[in-house]
Structures are given as structure tokens and as C-alpha cells.
Design goal:
By secondary structure, the protein is of the alpha/beta class. The chain is built from 16 helices and 22 strands. Helix 1 (12-18) packs across helix 4 (104-115), helix 2 packs across helix 8 and helix 5 runs parallel beside helix 6.
Length: 500
């Protein structure tokens, strides 16, 4: 493993290049409400590439009053946006997608500076994916065909109606792409939104709100409330005027939001992370499986879909480990702006401490560190770490670390592999590696998870359902599943021969 983490360059030049794209305030009812440092509460956002360089920006710190104003603007804006035809909304969302592509450089650099995401990956994949999300949902709404049939002398039509103001709360990892994934179906369905981005990576949300305004969204269609989750976020989800809530984050926060949603009988979807198994069966292409396993360290392990529990047939353990170490040794830690870097830093010093706490407790429980196991001095990187746990009940196996920390366990037969794969409270994703079509179907179907890849990873048709089982989440996103969630369904019934 190559370590370039100590060579982080000054961020001043790159920050200056995107300073024009930084919005530090709230967007409420089509107006920017910028913080006044003399009278307004603010919070810092810093770059994990060079934490000690000082703040990238001082962001407006919203409160209950901010939340009430943003929801009020969404209520007012719904009168217009919700009444637009699907074709009118689609036209605006396609313009927004065009603007996203035009601003690829700004979005990619903001995300890299603010969150530490790999710059080349942002430019090559995730900015374009964000634009695709808006195009996808715009087109799905236009192509939607109302279900119609006749029964009991009545003509029946099932209609999608916009539900109303939606609160959209997005996470700090891949914030731009995950924001578009949640905002696009809400807006396409005709809902107005209040977007609350994570306080650890708020910058790209401001640019997205700016682009939405440029695309021609009417005032109040897209509102942005910056701030701390326990402050402005809690007030948003508790507002009785909100008609939909969608959230990505931790199970702990999800439970709090779920309570608030229940109080007001508001439909709620949540994607709450995972502890995915990566199952390598005896007949697998061992090198391909080992290579993919080593790449679970990507984005410093800050990926909810990652296969963090490596489960290997005991008969191929030594071969797998030799190949895994070969591929892991080739990974380079460093500055996310450097195209030769494979793994960037963790997002925040607090998160580095959290990751290390998991590792220390795993060792205290009797776990054995096979590689890594410590923070990298002088940076926010954490060494790519592999741990052989003391037992399947160990915390390091059962709880999501959300860092570059994997576990290794072995099994003796297919039944044990499935039992281990299904042995946590999570159920977001899984991988199975095998060259047998029969095993692929048998084991893939037996694993309880929202998504199971066989001999692949992170390849998705965006119209497929996305979500988790167990504490990994509630509900499904993706395609028509998301549009149905953001709609109220109505059955219109007209008696035959009464309308001419």
C-alpha cells in the first residue's frame, strides 16, 4: 500500500476557483437568506484534505424558525408546482440536468474539497449520475400510464396525485449524487421540497439549489435549509404541514425521524446503512473476488453498500488471502485530487475517532488484526484494515463501522455461508462470488437483503427497487417505487352511461 497522505497540497487555489459556486445560506421561497456573521448563527465546513487549513466556508445554521419558514414556502409553492403538468415539470428537470453537466467542474471540486470524495470519480461518474437521476424521473412521470379498467359497471382509473411538501434529508457521503437521487422523484411527482443536507458536507447542496432556480423552478418548489440535524432537521420532520419524509443516514437518527413522522401520520422512507456480506464460494474466480474485496476500501469505506463482512470458503482461505493482500497492497492513500490516489481521507476527525474506536474494541474482544488497524498520522486517513473477529457476535461483525475496516470469516459449506450472511440485523446489500449458475440462484435467493449482486458490485438499473431489510431501512426507492411513494393514489370511479 502506497501512502501519499502526507503530501496534501494547499487547498487555497482550488477553493478560489470554485468560490463563485459556494452558497452559504438557505434558499427559502426562491430567495437566498445568507448568514450575517455579526448577527446570525453559523457553523464551519472544513476540508478533510487539509483539516488544519481552516474553514472552507461559514454556513448558515438554521433553527426552528428557519424550518417553519422553509416548510411554509414549500406549502405556498405547492399551489403552483403541484398544478403543473408532468410535461412542464419534465422540461424544467431536463434543464436542471443540462445545467448539472455544464457545471461538472464546479460540482466535482466542491465535493472533493468538502467531503474528500475522489475527484476523478466525481467528474467521470457521479456528476453525470446526478443529471441522469433528474432525467430518469422526469421521463418516468411523462411515460406513466394510469391503470384503467371496468368492473361492476364502473370505469376505474388510478391517478397519481402530488402528495405535498416533502422533507428530504441527505447524508454526508456522496452528498451531491445522493441528494439528486432523493430530490428527483419528489420534484418529478409534483411535490415541493425542503432539502436538509448533512452538516459535514453542505457545499454541493447550495450549488444544486442555485442550478434548480436557474432551471426555472417556481419559488418554493425547491427550498434548502442548512444546519445541524438535531436543530433544523428535527424541526423540519416535526412540522405537521409536511406530507412526505425521506432520509438516508444512521438507524439511530432514523428512529428519531420515524417517531416524528408517526406523530403526524406522514409516510416515511429511510435508507439506514448496511453490513453487507461478500460471500466467496469454493468454485469462485478467487482473484476477481479478492480484487473486488480489496476495493471495498474505496471512498475510505464510507459506502453503505460495501461488502464489509468477507465470508470465504475455508478450503480457499489461503489462496484468497494471498490475492487479497496483493490487491490491497497496490492501493494508494493520498490526496483525493491526485489521480494516482485510490483512497482518500475520512470525512471528519470525529469520524476517524469513531472508526478507531471500533478497531480498538474489536481487539479488546479478542479479534486479530490481519492488516492496518490505525489512523495515519498527520491526516484524516485510516489504514485499510482487515480483522479476524473473535466470534460472529463481535461488535465489529454486527455493527456498521462506515470506514475502511473489513472482517474475515470462513465457512465450511453453503448452508453455513448463508447463515453467516443473514446473521446481522442489517439487510441492505450482499455479494456472492461463484461460477455456478445453480449456486448463484440458490445462494442469491437465500440471502436476505434488498440487493444481491453475483460476480458484480455497484452496477444498478435505476428503475429497480432500492432499499434494505431489517434495520437497513423502510420502504423502497428507485423508478416507479419512488414516484408511488411521493404520490397519493386516487381511484376515480364513474358509472357507465352516466357521462357522455
Amino acid at each position: 500500500m502506497t501512502d501519499r497522505s502526507s503530501t496534501a497540497q494547499s487547498i487555497d487555489e482550488d477553493l478560489a476557483a470554485v468560490r463563485h459556486a459556494i452558497r452559504t445560506g438557505h434558499m427559502i421561497g426562491g430567495q437566498w437568506v445568507e448568514p450575517d456573521s455579526a448577527t446570525s448563527a453559523t457553523f464551519e465546513t472544513r476540508s478533510p484534505l487539509n483539516w488544519d487549513a481552516g474553514p472552507l466556508a461559514l454556513m448558515a445554521r438554521g433553527d426552528a424558525q428557519t424550518a417553519a419558514a422553509a416548510v411554509g414556502a414549500a406549502v405556498d409553492g405547492f399551489t403552483e408546482w403541484g398544478a403543473w403538468t408532468v410535461h412542464q415539470r419534465a422540461e424544467v428537470l431536463h434543464r436542471l440536468a443540462d445545467l448539472i453537466i455544464e457545471h461538472t467542474d464546479d460540482i466535482a471540486m466542491l465535493e472533493t474539497l468538502d467531503m474528500g470524495f475522489m475527484h476523478e470519480s466525481m467528474r467521470a461518474r457521479l456528476v453525470g449520475r446526478g443529471a441522469t437521476n433528474f432525467r430518469l424521473y422526469a421521463d418516468l412521470m411523462v411515460e406513466h400510464t394510469e391503470r384503467a379498467w371496468n368492473a361492476k359497471n364502473l370505469d376505474h382509473v388510478v391517478q397519481r396525485m402530488p402528495a405535498g411538501p416533502a422533507v428530504v434529508i441527505t447524508p454526508w457521503n456522496a452528498p451531491f449524487m445522493l441528494s439528486t437521487w432523493k430530490l428527483a422523484p419528489a420534484l418529478a411527482a409534483g411535490n415541493t421540497v425542503v432539502h436538509k443536507p448533512a452538516e459535514w458536507s453542505p457545499l454541493s447542496a447550495g450549488l444544486l439549489a442555485d442550478l434548480a432556480q436557474q432551471a426555472g423552478m417556481p419559488p418554493g418548489a425547491y427550498n434548502l435549509a442548512q444546519g445541524i440535524g438535531s436543530e433544523v432537521g428535527a424541526a423540519l420532520v416535526a412540522d405537521p404541514r409536511v406530507r412526505r419524509i425521506t432520509f438516508t443516514g444512521s438507524p439511530e437518527t432514523g428512529r428519531h425521524i420515524g417517531h416524528a413522522a408517526a406523530e403526524n401520520l406522514v409516510p416515511f422512507t429511510a435508507e439506514l446503512g448496511g453490513k453487507g456480506p461478500l460471500v466467496v464460494l469454493a468454485d469462485a474466480d478467487v482473484d476477481a473476488a479478492a480484487h473486488r474485496a480489496a476495493w471495498q476500501f474505496d471512498d475510505s469505506g464510507q459506502v453503505c453498500l460495501a461488502g464489509t463482512r468477507i465470508l470465504v470458503d475455508e478450503s480457499i482461505r489461503d489462496d484468497f488471502m494471498e490475492r487479497f493482500n496483493h490487491h490491497a497492497d497496490a492501493l494508494a492513500l493520498g490526496d483525493s485530487r491526485d489521480p494516482n490516489t485510490d483512497i482518500g481521507p475520512a470525512v471528519h476527525p470525529t469520524h476517524v475517532d469513531r472508526i478507531h474506536g471500533f478497531v480498538e474494541r474489536a481487539v479488546a474482544e479478542g479479534g486479530r488484526i490481519l492488516r492496518g488497524g490505525a489512523p495515519v498520522s498527520g491526516s484524516l486517513h485510516y489504514q485499510p484494515t482487515l480483522i479476524e473477529p473473535a466470534s460472529n457476535d463481535a461488535e465489529i461483525v454486527q455493527r456498521e463501522v462506515f470506514g475502511p475496516v473489513l472482517t474475515l470469516q470462513t465457512f465450511t459449506d453453503e448452508n453455513e455461508a448463508v447463515a453467516l450472511a443473514n446473521s446481522t440485523a442489517y439487510g441492505l446489500s450482499a455479494m456472492v462470488w461463484t461460477t455456478s449458475a445453480e449456486r448463484a440462484n440458490r445462494v442469491g435467493r437465500a440471502i436476505r437483503a434488498g440487493l444481491v449482486w453475483v460476480n458484480a458490485f455497484l452496477v444498478r438499473d435505476l428503475t429497480a427497487p432500492f432499499g434494505g431489510c431489517g434495520i437497513s431501512g423502510i420502504g423502497r426507492e428507485g423508478g416507479d417505487h419512488a414516484l408511488d411513494f411521493h404520490s397519493d393514489l386516487k381511484t376515480l370511479m364513474i358509472l357507465d352511461d352516466t357521462v357522455h
